[in-house]
Amino acid sequence: MEFAKPLPSYLVQRYQGWKATTYSENRSWYRRLATEGQRPRAMVISCCDSRVHVTSIFGADQGEFFIHRNIANLVPPYEPDGDHHGTSATIEYAVTVLKVAHLMVLGHSQCGGVQGCIDMCKGLAPELERKESFVGRWMDILRPKYDLVSDISDDAEQARAFERQSVLASLANLMTFPFIAEAVEEGSLSLHGLWTDIGEGGLEYYDTKAKAFAPV
Amino acid sequence: MEFAKPLPSYLVQRYQGWKATTYSENRSWYRRLATEGQRPRAMVISCCDSRVHVTSIFGADQGEFFIHRNIANLVPPYEPDGDHHGTSATIEYAVTVLKVAHLMVLGHSQCGGVQGCIDMCKGLAPELERKESFVGRWMDILRPKYDLVSDISDDAEQARAFERQSVLASLANLMTFPFIAEAVEEGSLSLHGLWTDIGEGGLEYYDTKAKAFAPV
Amino acid sequence: MEFAKPLPSYLVQRYQGWKATTYSENRSWYRRLATEGQRPRAMVISCCDSRVHVTSIFGADQGEFFIHRNIANLVPPYEPDGDHHGTSATIEYAVTVLKVAHLMVLGHSQCGGVQGCIDMCKGLAPELERKESFVGRWMDILRPKYDLVSDISDDAEQARAFERQSVLASLANLMTFPFIAEAVEEGSLSLHGLWTDIGEGGLEYYDTKAKAFAPV
Amino acid sequence: MEFAKPLPSYLVQRYQGWKATTYSENRSWYRRLATEGQRPRAMVISCCDSRVHVTSIFGADQGEFFIHRNIANLVPPYEPDGDHHGTSATIEYAVTVLKVAHLMVLGHSQCGGVQGCIDMCKGLAPELERKESFVGRWMDILRPKYDLVSDISDDAEQARAFERQSVLASLANLMTFPFIAEAVEEGSLSLHGLWTDIGEGGLEYYDTKAKAFAPV
């Protein structure tokens, strides 16, 4: 473990600033969160992308959202084979232990993971096809949906359409988990498909009547 | 997809408030992030826990941190077997595509995942032992480290010690990825082990000289 | 060049301390900044005054702010006459090459340049009126705004008011540069007027609705 | 002035953190600096580049360095023609009013301004040749020195050599200011030529005996 490094000093300074202001002003709330445990109202599955901050967009505070972030906000299908499934573990914990009332999948514009999947599907990314490519194998989850957008000739439009498909694929896969389907059926959990435009600050949701994404 | 629901109105209202204020005042930066792409300085692996907000603690804004969040901030060992490995995909993307300079693993107090693992190891959580338990199988990553803390008789102290082991286990597993070991060796990536106390707002880092966590 | 001297040894020692600590712990980030180039989010125009450290106030690290510092944080009007215009060159580079999203003009209390301008306007500084006085000729940029504060009888109050006028004069002059006006209009650049109180650690911004400076 | 915007909230938060920690812990010093005025020991002329932080490299605190930053750390020759000369004003103020004991010119690697000058000299940057290009006209200060490096065939090596020439050209121009030459002659001011390597954290000074830059 001799390779571990101390924290860069600019982060230490910022942390101390946070401790002296935000933490200090909310100490009682932080302590209550610590002693009583978390009780989040919603789970959010969003991308790791540094430009997507769900807590900022929704003005969410400590304790509100249980957040899983992975490449391209994907959920794999239910596969209880005894292996490590990090995303499935987060969902199981949120729904069966924390009993969140809402589960939101948040896609976003300019998603590098989704673009990588498009490149693979077009034969432009042989390095992602390799068995050893974790990104490529992860994006395989979305790959079967490429047919739905392969006809779109404009590249930017195609990427946006596929980003929305990544949200829908995740929602569909969520329903393959027995505990999710059950909670949705009995009305204790609702699922939401969302997509945000980074540059324009837009937010869309999947509208089941229109069978399309629409601005919130 | 008829199960998907519109966004709860309190979140719609908050979003619209964000759009009219934060987004509006920073439109130029968001647009630049959208057109030029992200270029985060650091990746953070933290827990999904709703009480842990790394961007808040470090005063980080859109574009600074590439963030992966899973149960108990765990990294599995390198296993390029062609299956979906969500966590490994995030690391691969951050290090080989985005070329982040820092990779921080952030553990935290009162971690439900770590507690679950302790319960399993003590034989108190048969439901987590089931093959179908995604949380149980995910926590298997940490399980071999239980010996290091099994002697600690105080429950709270044991949990804190194991939370820190989850950080160290992740750091050790990170080094099993060839592209990480290489980047660390050539000095283009540094790894950091961190642990935060939710109730007290504390922050500790792993100090290689002391071979222990110490306040930053 | 025989007049150049080696660095004082106390600075050599401090540099070597920095190299062994801050640099060493952030080598990966410095190397990435060197190879990939800078991509600052904001430009700051502040005074040369040794008491004003914008990076400290804002917890900014290497790579965040493109900083121009001159006497009294002044921007001259657009004057493309083929002569050397150091300040205009910095603005042009920041906005047209680096495409910063924010441009902040930061004034401050106890500004010696602003005080010199007041002295000139009151006829108390004949040495600054000389054609050869670079400081005097530089403060001519601010001089026409003296009418706005000439009625204030309290000296300290007048100086503070004029320091704020130096910020507003710079903002107004910035808008005379075609590439700034254009970027502001299309929403790719936002301008900010700031003033800091050195002794009290205060920070104010120009509030367009109140048409006055207000604490942030 | 209706175009001015409030400060982005992440900067407001960081500022408040600074106020509650760094400022709060040093309030007496800040107040003394405010009431007694600045008394910096040295002036530094460095580049606006966001990657160059002279206060960090030298562990300098509030009040130590009077800092002018412009494109490529250039000083124009003495030209008392009654026009605005921002850089000359900073030098005059530092040497004749503040009476600094040291004046350091700090060049750096990967300098965009210096590279632009090389491009102009090679006929590769017609846009910088335009009368309206402030960057181009500013770099004209350095242009006459291109002959000294035009023979170097390796691009990176040539850029480094020209960056060092920018420091020497500024030192030579400083000596054309009567008040500088006088202060240097009477021993009340010493000039220093420095160059820093961003990626490697290196620092070199101009060694008059060796007539070359050497590591400090």
TrEMBL record, chains A, B, C, D:
Q: Which domain of life is it from?
A: Bacteria
Family per similarity comment: Belongs to the beta-class carbonic anhydrase family.
Q: Which Pfam families match?
A: Pro_CA
Record's cofactor remark:
Binds 1 zinc ion per subunit.
PANTHER family under this entry? CARBONIC ANHYDRASE
Listed binding positions for Zn(2+) are: 47, 49, 108, 111
Give the SMART domains listed for this entry: Pro_CA
Supply the EC number(s): 4.2.1.1
Q: What is this protein called?
A: Carbonic anhydrase
Keywords on record: Lyase, Metal-binding, Zinc
InterPro entries per UniProt? Beta_CA_cladeB (IPR045066), Carbonic_anhydrase (IPR001765), Carbonic_anhydrase_CS (IPR015892), Carbonic_anhydrase_sf (IPR036874)
Q: Which GO terms describe its biological process?
A: carbon utilization
* A molecular-function term among this protein's GO annotations: carbonate dehydratase activity
Q: Does the keyword Zinc apply?
A: yes
> Which coenzyme or cofactor does it need?
Zn(2+)
What organism, scientifically named, is this protein from? Antarcticimicrobium luteum
Catalyzed chemical reaction(s):
hydrogencarbonate + H(+) = CO2 + H2O
Role played: Reversible hydration of carbon dioxide.
